[in-house]
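Anyone up for a design puzzle?
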């Protein structure tokens, strides 16, 4: 039995496309970033419905079960469905169907349970982060996305909910570490979006609830880590399954199957009876039957998430070490002793991601331009994809006079949301 609710306790929730995090400012005024996944603050935004035990696993346990070959269904990148009609559609999970919306509710319930267990008290108030744009250039769908997220949080048990832009939340976290008046471009590169805010920071104003006068500009673009994963998957892995393969009549094999198989939130569509039939019939378009066999093995074995997970890991390793990284694809080979891998190098990664990164950097520059400032003092990097080396290099080249500061990639937004909640954001945050 949890003790009586502390009405002053407000949970900051960073519900991310790839990872989620949560934090609170406790009764003593101390920030607590909550360990959601063992000792780790970040929790993969993933659920695994295990068939044999009829149980639901979350976070890293969900990923480990899937990668370990446990029979069941993995779901990731649910945030990417917000604002679309897919959120109210049903998907097969074992021998039953469940709405994607209800899966989001399940995730929020588990996140709430873990936070309450850690704090030892019920939590009814939440400040939830949101990107500058859930959906680009469509205000009605953008509002629908926020409304859907609020409805899911309420069904999970939160009674009072406010929203704050994720880059503003990151700025509030960064403000705790600046010594005086500073202008900053906050760069929040998440799994599904890249968001930017130019803001004036000063620790003397950190407890002021309404900071709207300090926010000089916000921009955002619907590009993030999951898009980078898709681009790298298409450039390095999918050609080994027939993507861009010139088949009979020197015509390329239809590419829709490869795009679905490379997109986190669409992978499940590749495994439907209709999709499998379509892929089988493609055999006539291939002049290399080995490629078609690999494609069918990937689809029939439901290896899409496994391949993307390998690409994601190689992307991180390549960015951190600055050396080539391999994606092991031996599971696509038939027979002992066969070996297959895809290679990602710093050069190939930079070339593959260049168009997307140019768009992200242009959006960042546009934010500074809109602020009216000739330049900013600092560029503060946060979000799970902000450590991508080609992005850091591109931002440094675009803003050579600013100091690049690498923040808490996974906990910074949640911390800022918690600070916003502690400073009375329910009167001033986005509702």
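Challenge accepted. My sequence:
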């Amino acid at each position: 039995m949890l003790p009586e609710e502390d009405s002053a306790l407000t949970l900051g929730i960073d519900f991310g496309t790839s990872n989620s995090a949560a934090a609170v400012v406790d009764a003593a005024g101390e920030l607590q970033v909550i360990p959601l996944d063992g000792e780790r603050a970040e929790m993969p935004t993933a659920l695994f419905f295990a068939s044999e035990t009829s149980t639901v696993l979350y976070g890293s346990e969900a990923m480990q079960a899937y990668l370990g070959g446990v029979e069941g269904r993995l779901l990731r990148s649910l945030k990417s469905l917000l604002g679309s009609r897919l959120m109210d559609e049903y998907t097969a999970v074992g021998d039953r169907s469940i709405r994607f919306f209800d899966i989001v509710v399940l995730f929020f319930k588990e996140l709430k349970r873990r936070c309450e267990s850690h704090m030892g008290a019920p939590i009814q108030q939440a400040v939830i982060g949101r990107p500058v744009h859930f959906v680009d250039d469509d205000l009605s769908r953008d509002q629908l996305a926020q409304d859907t997220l609020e409805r899911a949080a309420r069904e999970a048990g939160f009674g009072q909910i406010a929203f704050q832009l994720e880059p503003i939340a990151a700025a509030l976290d960064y403000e705790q570490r600046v010594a005086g008046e500073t202008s900053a471009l906050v760069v929040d590169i998440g799994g599904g979006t890249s968001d930017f805010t130019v803001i004036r920071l000063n620790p003397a104003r950190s407890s002021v609830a309404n900071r709207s006068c300090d926010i000089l500009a916000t921009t955002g673009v619907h590009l993030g880590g999951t898009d980078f994963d898709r681009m790298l998957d298409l450039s390095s892995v999918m050609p080994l399954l027939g993507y861009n393969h010139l088949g009979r009549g020197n015509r390329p094999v239809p590419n829709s199957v490869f795009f679905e198989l490379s997109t986190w939130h669409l992978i499940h569509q590749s495994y439907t009876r209709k999709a499998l039939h379509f892929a089988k019939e493609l055999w006539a378009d291939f002049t290399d039957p080995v490629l078609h066999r690999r494609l069918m093995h990937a689809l029939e074995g439901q290896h899409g998430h496994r391949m993307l997970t390998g690409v994601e890991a190689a992307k991180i390793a390549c960015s951190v070490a600055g050396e080539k990284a391999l994606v092991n694809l031996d599971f696509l080979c038939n027979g002992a002793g066969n070996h297959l891998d895809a290679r990602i190098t710093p050069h190939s990664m930079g070339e593959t991601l260049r168009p997307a990164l140019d768009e992200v950097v242009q959006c960042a520059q546009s934010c500074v331009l809109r602020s009216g400032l000739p330049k900013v003092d600092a560029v503060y990097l946060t979000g799970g994809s902000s450590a991508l080396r080609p992005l850091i290099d591109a931002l440094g080249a675009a803003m050579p006079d600013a100091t690049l500061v690498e923040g808490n990639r996974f906990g910074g937004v949640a911390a800022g949301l918690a600070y916003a909640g502690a400073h009375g954001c329910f009167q001033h945050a986005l509702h």
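A detail worth pointing out: The longest helix spans residues 346-371.
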